[in-house]
Design goal:
With 456 residues, this protein is mostly helical. The chain has 3 domains: 107-258, Tetracycline Repressor, domain 2 (Orthogonal Bundle); 261-386, Four Helix Bundle (Hemerythrin (Met), subunit A) (Up-down Bundle), CATH 1.20.120.1780; 402-455, no CATH class. It is built from 21 helices and no strands. The protein has helices at residues 2-40, 53-58, 60-64, 71-113, 115-131, 139-163, 165-168, 178-181, 186-207, 210-230, 237-257, 266-285, 287-293, 306-318, 322-328, 334-356, 360-383, 388-400, 403-407, 419-426, 435-438. It comes from Trapa incisa. Keywords: Heme biosynthesis, Membrane, Transferase, Transmembrane, Transmembrane helix. InterPro entries: Protohaem_IX_farnesylTrfase, UbiA_prenyltransferase, UbiA_sf.
């Protein structure tokens, strides 16, 4: 019986041997992949070491599964996987460093360029371009003009900060700029300003015309090399800065039309007279800062503020006839004349309030009113502008309705010499009258007396 039990046991073992071999063939690759996975996901300190290799070879299970001669291969695979994991982990870090570096220099360039002020300059240049375009606006030309103006304005503002780095470091509102705070070097700022200035001028010369490029280059030189040093010499710097601010709309007009006419001076005149009360309010509110920075502003020599407020009020009053000139010279409709007059009287009221009560609160109120005035004025003149097609339509209507002229007491004549007379009376007023002569009726008595012999 004992022998028979042993015999049966041996038969069972022999019968189960193929199954065992089959199981070994299945489990060997699974365990190998599991070992590789565990090796790649552990740190180098937990990888297979030389001291662990005897344990691995002496293990009968692993020895039976075929791992006894492959410990060196596992270690090589583990080291390769660890190196690959380290490289892949460094890639996001380097990408994040590039993003942070780009963000840093982007902020520095934006502050050097005074992005919001430059955008205002671009808006005035674009408005001048549309006004000078007539009935059809070249959208591509408008984009090129705005882009070139933005580059030149950025260059001018950057050079302004390069020259005033020591002064800005002494003022509270400017000491955190990129140059005084040391976030960017002076040589880097000069390189940036030179690059964008040359690029902007070249862009205007190639895509618009040389007149616009010349105005942009001259404005850059005037702002950086005349207005900037003059701020530390004499209070007249405010009026020179007003000229700088008045050139961009003239640049836009020249880019669109290729020339400069008397109508192109309306928007620059508005910019010039508007900047004086704007700067006077700012100089009064920040006079302690300007004194600390070493700037020669009119508010520093006017302790009571009377002269500062009077200059602001006087230049607000100079804005009143501009709406009428725009209407009379055929640039805008009569609605703009009325709206411009109301708007100018509103800002003049804030200036008069500042003149009567020279306090910080009144100066701030006039400053906010000046910020509101410019976009409303430009929007109004764009909305009510008269295109060339409308002007030609008025002339054609004068030939279709000659009976209207009989009610005004003017004889109807078919001669071409009287065409302009008929057009003026149909429109209810003078049309395209010589602006210089007509301006003698405005508060400019030094201009020559008007002569309308050609119109009688």
């Amino acid at each position: 019986m004992w022998r028979s039990s042993i015999t049966s046991s041996l038969k069972k073992i022999s019968l189960s041997a193929p199954a065992c071999q089959t199981t070994q063939g299945v489990t060997r690759p699974l365990l190998f992949h599991f070992q590789c996975f565990s090796t790649t996901t552990t740190s180098p300190s937990t990888s297979i070491s030389a001291s662990q290799s005897p344990t691995l070879t002496s293990d009968p299970l692993k020895s039976g599964l075929g791992f006894s001669g492959k410990s060196d291969g596992i270690r090589a695979f583990a080291s390769t996987s660890t190196a690959a994991f380290s490289v892949s982990s460094l890639a996001p870090a380097k990408a994040w460093d590039v993003v942070r570096l780009a963000r840093h220099y982007g902020n520095c360039y934006s502050e050097l360029s005074k992005a919001r002020l430059s955008m205002l300059v671009v808006a005035t240049s674009g408005t001048g371009f549309i006004l000078g375009s007539g009935s059809a606006v070249d959208v591509a030309g408008l984009c090129w003009t705005c882009g070139g103006t933005m580059m030149v304005a950025a260059a001018a503002n950057s050079l302004n900060q390069v020259f005033e780095v020591n002064n800005d470091g002494k003022m509270k509102r400017t000491r955190q700029r990129p140059l005084p705070s040391g976030r960017i070097s002076i040589h880097h700022a000069i390189t940036w300003a030179s690059s964008v200035g040359i690029a902007g001028t070249t862009l205007l010369a190639c895509k618009t015309n040389m007149l616009a490029a010349g105005l942009a280059a001259s404005n850059l030189l005037l702002y950086a090399f005349v207005y900037t040093p003059l701020k530390q010499i004499h209070p007249v710097n405010t009026w020179v800065g007003a000229i700088v601010g008045a050139i961009p709309p003239l640049l836009g007009w020249a880019a669109a039309s290729g020339d400069i006419s008397i109508n192109s001076m309306i928007l620059p005149a508005a910019l010039y007279f508007w900047q004086i009360p704007h700067f006077m309010a700012l100089a009064y509110m920040c006079r302690n800062d300007y004194a600390a920075g070493g700037y020669k502003m009119i508010s520093l020599l006017d302790a009571s503020g009377q002269k500062t407020s009077l200059v602001a009020l006087r230049n607000c009053l100079y804005l009143i006839p501009l709406g009428f000139f725009a209407y009379d010279w055929g640039l805008a409709s009569g609605w703009f004349c009325m709206e411009s007059s109301i708007l100018t009287l509103a800002i003049s009221a804030t200036a008069f309030s500042f003149y009567r009560d020279r306090t910080m609160q009144k100066a701030r109120k006039m400053f906010y009113a000046s910020l509101l005035y410019l976009p409303v004025f430009m929007s109004g003149i764009l909305f009510h502008r008269i295109s060339d097609d409308q002007q030609h339509l008025d002339v054609n209507n004068s030939h279709k309705f000659p009976e209207i002229l009989s009610h005004s007491g003017t004889s109807v004549d078919d001669n071409d010499d009287h065409t302009e007379v008929r057009t003026r009376q149909i429109n209810g007023g003078p049309q395209r009258r010589p602006p210089v002569a007509y301006a003698s009726y405005a508060p400019f008595p030094f201009l020559p007396a008007p002569s309308y012999d050609a119109y009688s």
